[in-house]
């Protein structure tokens, strides 16, 4: 029997759709992601304010800015997925711009168009869902929490991408 490793989710919002999925190892602000030393696969949502198109308006926070590099290192070492906005300058600075894929979170049920880039390590993207539904809402109609919430279908897709890789590997005998 193949058992999938626990997936850790780094930099999770305190109230998140990840809370709805049992069995995940959630690293919210109170746990301080910098304390993560596990070897299991990760999904990361490093804070983007220091890297976004609007970074000039963000309060400078080196601790938070460096968290993106910490999260990328964990994805590269443990396998998993690093998620950050399409407009983030992190991709270029980290030197991985040409190794990311672009998705639209609307494909996964977000009620607005929101481009996101994903970096995969030791796993890869499964078939992407496509939605051709008309968008009736825009960013100004949503609260900041609604705009930043990861849609449950996207979370399910992240988990499936990681688990499909791990389940295809031969299990180690104990």
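^ structure tokens above, recovered residues below v
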């Amino acid at each position: 029997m193949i058992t999938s490793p626990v997936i850790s989710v780094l930099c999770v919002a305190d109230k998140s759709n990840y809370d709805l999925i049992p069995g995940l190892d959630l690293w919210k602000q109170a746990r301080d992601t910098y304390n993560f030393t596990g070897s299991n696969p990760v999904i990361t949502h490093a804070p983007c304010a220091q890297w976004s198109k609007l970074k000039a308006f963000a309060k400078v926070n080196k601790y938070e800015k460096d968290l993106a590099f910490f999260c990328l290192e964990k994805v590269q070492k443990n396998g998993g997925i690093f998620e950050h906005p399409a407009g983030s300058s992190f991709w270029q600075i980290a030197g991985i711009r040409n190794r990311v894929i672009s998705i639209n979170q609307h494909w996964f049920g977000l009620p607005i168009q929101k481009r996101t880039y994903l970096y995969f390590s030791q796993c890869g993207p499964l078939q992407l869902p496509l939605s051709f539904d008309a968008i009736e809402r825009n960013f100004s109609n949503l609260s900041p929490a609604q705009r930043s919430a990861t849609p449950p279908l996207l979370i399910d897709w992240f988990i499936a991408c990681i688990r499909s890789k791990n389940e295809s590997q031969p299990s180690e005998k104990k």
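The first strand starts at residue 8 and ends at 12.
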